[in-house]
Amino acid sequence: VAAGSAAGSGAAGSPEAAGGSTGGGGWRRPHGPLQRYYGPSGAEAAEAPPDPTDINGPHFDPEVFMNKVRSECPLGQLLAREAALGREIRALDSDMQTLLYENYNKFISATDTIRKMKVDFRHMEAEMDDLAANMAAISASSARVSAALQDRHRRGAQLAGVQALLRKLQALVEVPGRLRRWAGTEPARALRCHARARARVDRYLRALQTFFLGCLGDVRQALAAPRPPGKEGPGLPDLLATLAASVLGQLKAVLAYVQLFTARDVAFASLPYFKGEFCVTAVREGLVVAFVRWLCRTARGFADGPAERGAPAAPPALLLLLARLCLDYENSTISYILTLTDEQFPPQDSGPAVTPGPALCAEARAAAQRLLDHYVQVQGAAVAQMLRKSVETRDWLGTVEPRNVRAVMKRVVEDITAIDIQVGQLFEEGVRRAQSSDSSRRAFSVYSSSRAPGRYAPSYTPSAPMDTHLLSNIQKLFSERIDIFSPVEFNKVSVLTGIIKISLKTLLECVRLRTLGRFGLQQVQVDGHYLQLYLWRFASDERVVQGLLDEVAASAAHRCLDPVPMEHSVVELICERG
C-alpha cells in the first residue's frame, strides 16, 4: 500500500511528468494516470502477476484493497492518499479534454463513416428480407401439398369411422324398443319389486335400531330418576320385561310390514327367486339376524367401548339388565324369532346358506358374559375404593386401642347386601358349597349380636406373640390359590363371590403397603372378624372369604412393629356392639 501511495503521489502520478508525443498526427501516447487507466500493454500484463490491491491493474478488487488499507495504513497516510487521488482525477480530466480537442476532426469523420455503414446495412437487410420471404413462400407451397395429401388420408379414415358410428347408432335406436319389451317381462317386474323390497328392509332395520336405542334411553332415565321417600319406582324385572316385550313386539310388527309389502305383488311373491334369495338374504339375514347381532354388539359396547370424555358411565344396574337380556335372547328369544321368520318367509331347501341359530345364540351369550363380568368389576372396584381410602388415610402407627368396628366396614356390608338384592332380582340363587357347622350356627342372625365360634380365632387372636414370617409361610402352604378375576357364572352367588374377592384382595394389597403399630394390628383384627361374620353367607364358598381375611391378618402382623394381638373374647364383644 505504501508503494502504491508513493506511485500515486510521485512523478509517475503527476501529469507534468508525462512527456513525448507521436508523429505528425497530433496523437499523444497515453501516459501517467491516463496510461494506468487504460491499463498496461499486453507484454506488461503478461509479465506482472495479478494483484487485487493494484488500483490501476486489471485484477483490482475494491473490497480487498479497502480491507488492506484499513488494516495497514495509519490515518495520516489515508488522508495523503485521498489528496493524491484527487490530484490524479483532475489530471485525468485534463488529459481527456486535451485528447478530445486534438482528435475532434477524427471523431467527426468516424461518425460520418458509421452513418454510411448503417445505410448500407439497411439495404442488405432489405435484400435478406426478400430472400426470406421467397423461402417462406416455397415452404408454404410445400406445406399445402403435404396438407392436401394428409387430408386425403384423413378423409378416408373419417369415412370408415362414420360408417362404424352409423352402425352403432342403428343399434342404439333399437335399444329403447328392446327395453320396453323387456320391461313387461316377469324378470323385470321381479327386479323392480326386489329393489323396492330391499330398500324397504334397510329402512326397517334402521327403524328397529332407533327404536331399541330409544327404549334403552327410557331404561337409563328410569334408573337415574330420583325416588321420593316412600315411593318405589319400577324394579329391574319390570324394566327388563318392558324392554324385551317392546323390542320383540316391534320386530314382529316389522316382519308383518315386510310381508304386507311383498303381498301387494302376488306374482313376485310366488316366484322361486322371492322364496329363495329374498326371504333368506334380505329378510332373515339382512333384517332379523343383522338386528340381533347389532343388539348384542350395542349391549356389549357398554362394557368394551371406552367412555367418551365427559360422557357418564353406564350405571351398574343397566349392565346387569343388559346381561340378563342377552342371556334371555340366548335361551329362548333368538330361537323364537328365527322360527317366526321362517314361518312367515319360508326359505327353499336349495337356497343360500343361513346363519345357524346356535351361532347367533353363542354371540348373545358372549355379550351377556362380558356384561356380567364388567358388572362384577365395576361393583368390586366401588367397594374396593372405599376400603383403599380407609386404609390409606389412617395413621396405623399412632391409632388408639380399638373400641368399635370402623364405619367403612359397616358400609361395605351394607353395599354388599344391596348388591345381593339387586342381582337377586334378575338372576337365580345359584349353588353354594355345603357350609360347616360353625357357619350354620352363624347363619340364623346376620345382623344380630350372636357370638362367633372360636374356629377362626387362630387367624386373628393368637395367644402369644407370633413369628409372623413363619405364620405367613405356613398359611401360604395350606391355603388354596384364589383366582380373583375369573369369569363369573350366571347366578347371584357367583356374582357376589366375584365382588367380594375383588374387595378383599384390594384390602390385602393396601395392608401390605402400610406399617402398623400394636393397636393398628388389633383394629385390623376387629374389622376382619366383622367382615367374616357377615360376608361368608354371600359367597359360594366360605373358605374364599376366610382365606382372604386370613391373608389380611397375616400381612398386618407381618407389617406390625409390635405384633401383640387382641384377645378373641374382646374382639367378639366389639363386633357384637358394632
Automatic annotation (TrEMBL):
<feature type="compositionally biased region" description="Low complexity">
    <location>
        <begin position="1"/>
        <end position="19"/>
    </location>
</feature>
<dbReference type="GO" id="GO:0007030">
    <property type="term" value="P:Golgi organization"/>
</dbReference>
<dbReference type="GO" id="GO:0032456">
    <property type="term" value="P:endocytic recycling"/>
</dbReference>
<dbReference type="Pfam" id="PF08700">
    <property type="entry name" value="VPS51_Exo84_N"/>
</dbReference>
<keyword id="KW-0967">Endosome</keyword>
<dbReference type="GO" id="GO:0016020">
    <property type="term" value="C:membrane"/>
</dbReference>
<dbReference type="GO" id="GO:0048193">
    <property type="term" value="P:Golgi vesicle transport"/>
</dbReference>
<keyword id="KW-0445">Lipid transport</keyword>
<keyword id="KW-0653">Protein transport</keyword>
<dbReference type="GO" id="GO:1990745">
    <property type="term" value="C:EARP complex"/>
</dbReference>
<dbReference type="GO" id="GO:0000938">
    <property type="term" value="C:GARP complex"/>
</dbReference>
<dbReference type="GO" id="GO:0007041">
    <property type="term" value="P:lysosomal transport"/>
</dbReference>
<comment type="similarity">
    <text>Belongs to the VPS51 family.</text>
</comment>
<protein>
    <recommendedName>
        <fullName>Vacuolar protein sorting-associated protein 51 homolog</fullName>
    </recommendedName>
</protein>
<dbReference type="InterPro" id="IPR014812">
    <property type="entry name" value="Vps51"/>
</dbReference>
<keyword id="KW-0333">Golgi apparatus</keyword>
<keyword id="KW-0813">Transport</keyword>
<dbReference type="GO" id="GO:0042147">
    <property type="term" value="P:retrograde transport, endosome to Golgi"/>
</dbReference>
<feature type="region of interest" description="Disordered">
    <location>
        <begin position="1"/>
        <end position="60"/>
    </location>
</feature>
<comment type="function">
    <text>Involved in retrograde transport from early and late endosomes to the late Golgi. The GARP complex is required for the maintenance of protein retrieval from endosomes to the TGN, acid hydrolase sorting, lysosome function, endosomal cholesterol traffic and autophagy. Acts as component of the EARP complex that is involved in endocytic recycling.</text>
</comment>
<dbReference type="GO" id="GO:0006869">
    <property type="term" value="P:lipid transport"/>
</dbReference>
<dbReference type="GO" id="GO:0015031">
    <property type="term" value="P:protein transport"/>
</dbReference>
<comment type="subunit">
    <text>Component of the Golgi-associated retrograde protein (GARP) complex. Component of the endosome-associated retrograde protein (EARP) complex.</text>
</comment>
<dbReference type="GO" id="GO:0005829">
    <property type="term" value="C:cytosol"/>
</dbReference>
